[in-house]
Each structure stands twice: as structure tokens, then as C-alpha cells.
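Re: the request from the purification team.
They wanted to know what the chain is likely to look like in 3D before they choose a buffer screen. I agreed to run a prediction and write the result into the notebook, where they can find it.
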Amino acid sequence: MSDPAEPTADPLSALSTDVDDAEEVYSFLGPSGTFTEAALAQVPQAVGKKWRAVNNVGEALADVVAGRSVAAMIAIENSIEGGVSVAQDALATIPGLRIVGEYLVPVNFVLVARPGTTLADVKLVNAHPVAYGQTHQWLDANLPDHGHLPASSNVAAASSLFDGSPADAAIAPPTIVDHHDVVVLAENIGDNPNAVTRFVLVGRDRGVPAPTGADKTSLVAELPDDRPGSLLDLLEQFSTRGVNLSLIESRPIGDALGRYRFVIDADGHIHDERVADALLGLRRFSPAVIFLGSYPRADGAAVDYDRRYRDDVFTEAREWLASLTAPEPGPDADRTR
């Protein structure tokens, strides 16, 4: 596990600044009008900078690695489908990346088509797989015989209607009407009106935002071997330090059947004593730990934890341990140690 740099006051000041400020570029899944673009619009440092629309997560992160972009906004989790596997796998396998912030975007969808199309005409629907997964109940109820044609993004699904796509309709964000001459066949087709997608801003390895008391730490860890209790041993590195996990998902490592790594979000910051101690335990236990970053939570909710795991408790314990091998105290010293 690489050592994080000293904390910085500005959560986004850890971003690489190898390019001149006037040339700073932020990559996002395009084209214009996507939910990813809406997430990037929440980043104050990105306002007035150049935004580069890309076709997929791999291209966005490649921009960061190559220095073409100072950071990339990618979707990492949604409240309906869970983790975005392509993003999780990329962060686990591309070295030198660091999450510096997270952003939440409420998600809803409309069904759109070319002018003159009616709902009864729709047999084939173009949709991003995640959007399709969040609208399948509506589609099954209203278009039970429909087929699905995957798209690279929600906006691309709609724009393809004018680029020779065989699809009759597309699932897209409500703002799609601002970008394309489509007709809306149905609104609010999301299966869950409270659906939210979580995005993360990813830069290069340039430090850690300062703790705020409302932070999250993201990691990837592998089990040392395949035996009963290995996952429990991993989880105990956190539970015995009072660190709550808000996300843990398994992803195949890919080198053999049955081998998995775990994507983990822990409540707290690496500079919190309880989290740092948990990471030390995890590093001793796991053959491969990837620190993806500590950063402010998007919801700003303060981390709630048992006060037995306050920073000063860990500090006092280390001081006590050091005192056990310190020179013999004088006759009036406290001998209760």
C-alpha cells in the first residue's frame, strides 16, 4: 500500500497540476447531456475549464494517466444496480490513480423516439445497460415484447436514433430534449423515483484531502488464500477498530476461477487513527491492498463511531506501549502502568 501524502485543506488540491491552469482538462463520459456531465458540473474547480467528452471509463482514466486530463469523472455506484463493475475493475488494475471527491446525481429517465413515432411502434429500445437495468420493470409492463440494444451512454442511446440505429426508441435523461430533436413517449420511467448514482472524481497520485469528519476511504484488497474464515478475517480488521464499511463488493481477479478481490468503502479518513490502524492490519493480512483515496462524503454526513475508538485512545495506547520499555521511573512515579 503506497504512503498517502500529507493532507491538504482543499479536497481537490491533491489533483495533478502538471498542465498549466489555462489548459486544465476534465474528462467525462459523453456526449454532452449525460449524468456524468451533471456530476462534473458540481466540481467548482472544473468551472471554466475544458471538458473532454469520452466514450468509456477506460478512455477517461487513460486521459488521466497520460496527463491529457487533470481528472476524470466516472460513475462508481448506483442505488439500484450497485457497483459499476467496469469502473471498479479499472481502479483496481490501473496504477497511480486516486479518488479525490464523490458526487451524487438523482437519476430518472424518459423514453424518446424520432418524431412521428408512437409507443405502439416501439419494438427495439436502445439503452445503456445501467439505465436499462433501472427501467426494466416499466419496460416489461408497457413494452412486454421489446428488445434491448446496448448503448455506450444514455445520450448516445438517443443520438443513435439519428445515426442509422435500428432501434425504435431510446432511454435517456430528461434533459435530452435540449440536445436532440426527439419526442418524449413516456416520462419518469425509472423503477425507483429515489434512484441516485454516485460518481467519483479521479486524479493521479498527488496527496490526500484533509480530514473533515465526514469522510470516506476507498480500498481494494485480496484475500491471502481460499479457506473458511478468510473473508471474516478481512472484515475483522475493520470491526475490531470500530470502522464501518458502507460498501463491500467482490470482483473476479481474472487469473483463476474462484479468485476474487474486494472493493471496499470504509467510513472515515486514513488520517483517523482507527482507520489507519485498520489499514495496517489489512496490509499485514492481505497480499495486495490498493489505497484509492480518502475524500469528503458527498452527503456531508459526519461519520458516527464508538468513542472507544477516538484518536486519543490510540495515541495513549502507543504511549503506554512505549513506556513499558522506557528507563525505570523514579520512586515517586506512577507505578500503575
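For the purification team: The chain has a mean pLDDT of 90.
Please add any questions underneath this entry.
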